Amino acid sequence: MHADIQQVKEKVAEKSDLIRQLTGELSKVVVGQENMVSRLMVGLLTEGHVLLEGVPGLAKTTVVTALAQALSVGFSRIQFTPDLLPADLIGTMIYQPGDGKFSTRKGPIFSNLILADEINRAPSKVQSALLEAMQERQVTIGDETYALDRPFLVLATQNPIEQEGTYPLPEAQVDRFMLKVKITYPKPEEERRVLDMALEEIGRPINSVLQRQDIFDMQDVVRMIYIDDQIKDYIISIVRATRDPKAFKLKGIAELIDFGASPRASIFLGKGARAIAFLNGRGYVTPQDVKDIAYDVLRHRVILTYEAEAEEKTSDDVIKEILNAVPVP
Question: Where are the domains positioned within the chain?
């Protein structure tokens, strides 16, 4: 087994340089925000969709656009608005009077990297058209079903403060996102650098550093990373604790949780922990890798009760208590 881990570690070391090049390009336009950048890397390495939540002006759109420029893949930016229709997203059938036939016009979803900007601004039928594509990685237009090109990654943004004219994503739909990443304000010294860059108007071009095949190669290495059975059991225990806190002597938070995490949480915790191990240059997963990714995987899957809201408890508070209570292997 150890020989295998050693081989995987060598492969990880070989491919880590690609991630360094990619983050180097992103640092030309993004100051700080290491957590957001690392979570986008996790999404890329596992082909898991990412929901970025933060107030306007925190470089969410900037970093996704820069990521698309640094990768030699197709990119579509879709600005979600209340009047958007599913056809604006997936495409439609167009009648050709010349030969009296219908032809398919494919929509912007037919790309590799999709930036769904302000996803909570579009009505639910548009959201469900996007989420079908995310889940099935295919789109139906008329009678035809079209497979979407790989890699296919949806990076969506949403603004948590505006409620006016928004359509909150239903829990079942949010569950399709592997990660929900909370973006916070920059530190004072980072904001100063942002200001300097803006005032000097330094437009530093982003170079395309990774080809499509590089992405597939890295994803293959991530799939090889070793997860011990004890770590798999640890993942299952964390997810079970969200459903049955009392079994883990967490009586205090039992009344705060309305619904626990779905089995998707276990899958994404495993995949995410592997990606974190890859980013840390290891060929095996540690319990700390699971803890590191747990908040982003569970944040939108642990549904809280009204009591929790009344006590001003967030899902992050609940996840913290669970991680402290579940025995680490």
Answer: 2-196+209-213, 227-325
